[in-house]
Amino acid sequence: MPGPLDGIRVLNWSQFTPSSAGYILGDLGADVIKIEHPVQGDAYRGMGTMYGSAMSMKGGRHAGFEAVNRNQRSMTLDLKQDAGREILYKLVEQTDVFFTNYTRRVARDLKADYETLSAKNAKLIYAVSSTYGPEGPWAERRGFDQTAQARSGLMFAMGERDMPEPVQTVSGVADQMGATILVQGILAALVARERQGIGQLIDSSLLGSMLHLQYMGLSVTSFRGKSWARHARKKAPNPLTNHYRCADDKWILFAEIQADRFWPEFCKALGLDELVEDERFATALGGPDGGGRREHAVELIEILDKTLATKARDEWVRIFEEQHVPFAYSPVQDYYDVLEDEQVLANDYVVNFEHPEAGEIKAMGYPVRFSKTPAKIQSEAPEFGQHTEEILQELDFDWEKITELRDGGVI
Question: Which residues have CB under 8 Å from 64's CB, separation 6+?
C-alpha cells in the first residue's frame, strides 16, 4: 500500500546525520534521491575509519551511515561543473522538496541556493538544516551535534545536581532532533503548498531544535526567573519521581507526581507499611511546622535504597504487577535492553529487517502508526552512486550521454 507521501520526490543534498530527514521521508513513501559528490561522497561514509569497530556492522557497512540513509537512492553529481548543475536543475523541475545542510555561502557558490532553484520550480520546498539558524553572528559558523548540545543548555540539564561537570549525551540527539523538526517543517510546507499553491524556504537548526526539545525546562526557567535544577537522586524531595538500584545492579524508575495520593500503596508494595504513619514521611510537605518527605528526603532515600537493593528488578516488577500498583514505574534500560523490550517490539518501534549483506538485523521502526498508509522500511542505505544511471534514464538521458558524463567526472 502506498505511503502518505507516495508520489513526492525529495532531493537530499546533505552530509552526516541530517540525512535522518531523508530516511524519515522515505519511510513515509517519498522518493528520496541522495546527491553525493562523485569522488568525495557523503563524508559520513568514511567515518568508520575514524571510529573503527565502534561503527562497523556485519557485511562491512558503516552502522551510522546505514541507520540514517535507508529508503533513499544515491546519485553522484559534481555541482562545480555546469553539466552537473544542469542535471540538478532538470531534477528540481520534477521535485517537491530539496533539503540541504550546506551553508548558504556554499549553496550560492554552487548555484544551488533557494533563489536559483525556486526560479526553476516556484512550488519547490527548499529546506535547510543549519547549526545555529539563518540569522545572527553565528549563522554561518561550522557546528555539529555536540555544539548544539552545549549551546542549548542540554549539557547542564543532564547529570546529577551535585556534579560540577556538564554531560554530553550519546548517539547524535541534536542531529536527530534537528532532522525530525526539519521534517515537521517540510510536511507543514507541503500542506501550505497544497492549500495555497506556494513553495517556500524553511530553516530548521540544531540549536532551535534542541531548544524545542527542552521547551518545558526553558519556559519554566523563564517564567520563574530561576533555573530548573538538575535532578538530585540521593535527596529527591519526591521519592516517587526517582530511580533506584536493585539487587542485580539494574535500575528501576518511579515517575508519579501525585506522591501523597499513592504513597500508602507504594509503601505497601515495598513492605514498608510503617512509613505511612511515620510523621517524617506521612505527607510530602508535613504539617504547619514543616517536616514531611521533602524535609527528610535524604534519610528517606537511604531507606528506599536499602529496601530496593534486596530484590532483583524483575522481582520488584512482578510484585508491583501482582499488587496492581497504580503508580507509574519503568525499568531503566540500556540500548541492548531496549532492542529486546516486549513493549517496544509489540508496537513495531523496533522491527526485523533483512539486510542484503548483514542478514537479519533489528532496525528502528516508525514511531507513528498510520491505519491506512503505514510507514515502512523498503530498502537499506544505498551504495555510493548506486542509482545514478537509473535516475538519469528517468530524466531521458541515453547511455551515450551517461557515458560522456561519467568520463567527464560529472557523475
Answer: 17, 44, 47, 48, 51, 55
Give residue 41's region: left, alpha or beta (phi > 0; psi -120 to 50). Answer: left
Run of H or E including 316: helix 313-322
| Helix intervals (H) in 271-387 | 274-277, 292-295, 297-308, 313-322, 335-340, 342-346
What is the torsion angle, in degrees rounded to the nearest 10, for the CA atoms of residue 178, residue 181, residue 187 and residue 192?
Answer: -110
Nearest to 70 by CA among 363, 368, 269, 393: 363
Q: What is the DSSP letter of 287?
A: B
Specify the DSSP class assigned to residue 235: G
CB of 217 closer than 8 Å to CB of 154: no
List residues bridging with 129 in a β-sheet: 204
Distance from chain centroid for Cα 336: 18
Q: Which three cell numbers stand for residue 225?
A: 526567573
SS3 of residue 395 by DSSP: coil
The residue length of the chain stands at 411
Residue of 326, 303, 329 lying closest to 316 (CA atoms): 329
Cell of 144: 555539529
Q: How many helices (H) and strands (E) does the chain have?
A: 20, 11
pTM tops 0.85: yes
β-pairing, 359-364 vs 350-355, is antiparallel
Mean pLDDT per block of 10 residues along the chain (411 residues) reads 88 84 92 95 74 65 86 96 97 97 94 98 96 93 91 93 88 90 96 97 95 94 90 94 97 93 94 93 81 93 98 96 89 94 94 88 91 90 95 96 96 96
The domains of the chain, with CATH numbers, are 9-216+341-353+368-407 (3.40.50.10540), 241-326 (3.30.1540.10)
Q: What is the pLDDT of residues 109-119, one digit of tens each?
A: 999 999 999 99
Closest among 157, 165, 161 to 298, alpha carbons compared: 161
Q: Which three cell numbers stand for residue 119?
A: 526560479
CA-CA-CA-CA torsion sign (247, 279, 327, 235): negative
Encode pLDDT of 361-384 as tens digits. Answer: 899 999 999 999 999 898 999 999
> What is the predicted pLDDT for the residue at 54?
58
pLDDT in tens, 164-211: 899 998 878 999 999 999 999 999 999 999 999 999 999 999 999 999
At residue 273, φ and ψ (nearest 5 deg) are -60, -30
